[in-house]
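Re: weekly structure request thread

Next one in the queue (336 aa):
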Amino acid sequence: MERRTIGAAALEVGAVGLGCMPMSWAYAGSRQRGAESLRTVHAALDRGVTLLDTADMYGPFTNELLVGRALKGRRAEAFVSTKVGLLVGEQHIVANGRPGYVKRACDASLRRLQTDVIDLYQLHREDPEVPVEETWGAMAELVSAGKVRALGLCAVGARAGRGPGARLHDGTIRKLERVQQVFPVSAVEAELSVWSPEALEALLPWCEARGIGFLAAMPLGNGFLTGTLTPGEGFEPDDLRARHPRFTAEMMASNQPIVVGLRRIAARHSAASGADVTPAQVALAWVLSRGEQVVPVPGTKRECWAAENAAAAGLRLTAEDLAEVAQLPAALGSWD
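Done, posted below.
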């Protein structure tokens, strides 16, 4: 698989990553099976996927434990990214950016992941009660201690904090500029997909100008862009899409033209190559085309999808394809 670099330290990863969250959190709990998840991680590694993305809050904790088991005997093949800064309670999630907590959380993540170093340690959310510079400073000390190789910041969920007239990631960029004064940012993780392209406006250019890697979260639109979801089919109560404003039956039906467009491009490539190209692979190839430092991190818990996603690294979209994607209608949701 093609390799891409993250940050000024030129950390190399496979062009497509693997989001491990669905294996133990947030999506259809009845379909989460440990043995299949282990096979999924191994299938990804076998195909050149190296970046494995997890977080201590996923589960909580169980996702890191799973990744640790999956990497037994294969740690050298993987680039492990995990996150800190969020605590999960019974009915709530709270931020904790206190320096002492960050250091304890890192030690706990290292134990669960069964490794002596985390390749990329990301701040999941800023604690509103702790200056972000203090949190980032504690994370920088972990680099000095040899427990972490590089630092990243998540901008996932930035939509909720947008004020009137502001661009989606203005607040994130201000935060990045502050922490950059403390210790270099190697990567930013934020949503980027055919139906959520807002990061292209300001956040991705900001990263490009500074040589910062960009991890594209939710590059398949939480599964919608795969074309495998049926409007009105519904989701299990613990599935985050059951409450997502783009996954009501009405909005899923309204957004079908996006999937139809991806299918049309996939069919064209299938006919030309004789291989089966899917809408998901077109969606990932579009994300990959956004810049050489962009690494899509599609989440999955199934071996077949991990193999399909990895194969997207070899798909090259033409100028005609990209123009066609640009003409697709904007996605609708109940916030619109």
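The chain has eleven helices and twelve strands. The chain has a mean pLDDT of 92.
Next request, please.
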